[in-house]
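Researcher: Structure prediction, please.
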Amino acid sequence: MIRINKSQFDFVFPTDGNVSDKQEFNGGNIVGNLTYKRMLFDDDIEVAYLIEIYKFPEIAQYLSIGDNYFHYVTNTENVYFYKVYEHDKWIGTIHLEKKETVLYMVILVFPEFQRTGLGKKIVNDIQNDVFGLGFDRIEISIDETNFSSLGLFENAGFTFVSKEDGLINYAYEK
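Model: Predicted structure follows.
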């Protein structure tokens, strides 16, 4: 196991002895070709850009945020918001919340990077607990019309739990 400490970050990476594909980079962490940078402040310079992205029709139909969303994800204990980069391109975001041993997540891969395998890599990294959050189960709710996401999570080993109000709930057990 590798522990990387920075003044604002504490990431733990489980390793099998080969650490060449996992390293720290500019306050984030790299796993393979993806870099995860945690957003720590609700006045982050990219918040305005993200608000506009969340308004895109192809995103807004599945995901909506309230006025205080970025304050919530940057100021609430056990809530983590990451910007995801492939090499130097910003390709999406991750919202994680841990309650006891359950991890709840929302993944957004920006439309121009969807259907490229990046969502699968992100889900796999979360399943492998690259953020060191120590969970036993992951839960996610997906709009029943979001067929791409439904397939992504089914193929990643998530199992159907229930259906409520147009959302399909899935879980992954470690």
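Model: Helices lie at 47-54, 57-60, 69-75, 118-127, 147-155.
Researcher: Thanks, that helps.
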